[in-house]
Amino acid sequence: MDNLDSFEVLAREIFVLLEDGDSRIEYRTSMLRDTSVTWVRRFNPAGPSEVADERYFSLAAPYEVRESARRLRAACYREGGGTWFSARIVVTSAGEATADYNYDQEPEWDAPVDSVLYTNDQDRYPRDESAQPAWLKQKIAEGRAQIIAENNRARRR
Predict the structure, then answer these.
(1) Pick from 89, 90, 64, 93: nearest CA to 76
(2) Nearest of 93, 26, 84, 85 to residue 54 by alpha carbon
(3) Residue of 100, 89, 102 whose CA lies nearest to 15
(4) How far apart are the first and last CA of the chain?
(5) Is the pLDDT of residue 153 over 80?
(6) Which of 45, 73, 136, 152 has the highest count of CB atoms within 10 angstroms of its CB?
């Protein structure tokens, strides 16, 4: 499945989460091979929370939506260039869908992420060194050093 097909599947799955009175739904995720975090907001004047003068409801992303996002991330992979680290998908009540992908900035997490996870992600979605931002090079180096240290400790046992 290519990235357009994967995006359309994800957008449809997000669309069905809309309820009466919602103007749009926003799905945000930060993702690596072995971990992810998601935020979902249904924008509705009756919502209990507010951001930028708009009210919304927060909800958990269903398993199917999270898995479709993983498939979309895989479909967006480009040899040597990697894939995105975070995405923001917006689907309106009229069924229009847009996506913003972050390929270069360090993703937002709800808790610190172990550098080994960036190393594992690099193994799954390789990026040429020239396509790695400085923060990513540092995370990969830290992760590799941690893996080597753990292997050395294991051998000494």
Answers:
(1) 89
(2) 26
(3) 89
(4) 46
(5) no
(6) 73
| b/e code 68-83 from CB counts within 10 Å (16+ = b) | bbbbbbebbbeeeebb
How many alpha carbons lie under 13 Å from residue 82 in its C-beta half-sphere? 26
Contacts 24+ apart (CB under 8 A), 132-137: 132/82, 133/104, 133/105, 133/106, 135/106, 136/106
pLDDT for 110: 94
Q: Are 65 and 11 in contact (CB under 8 A)?
A: no
Residue with tokens 């357009």: 4
Which residues pair with residue 90 across a beta bridge? 26, 98
DSSP state of 129: G
* Structure tokens, 117: 């996870």
Amino acid at 99: A
Lookup: tokens for 65: 């939506």
Give the pLDDT mean for 12-33: 98
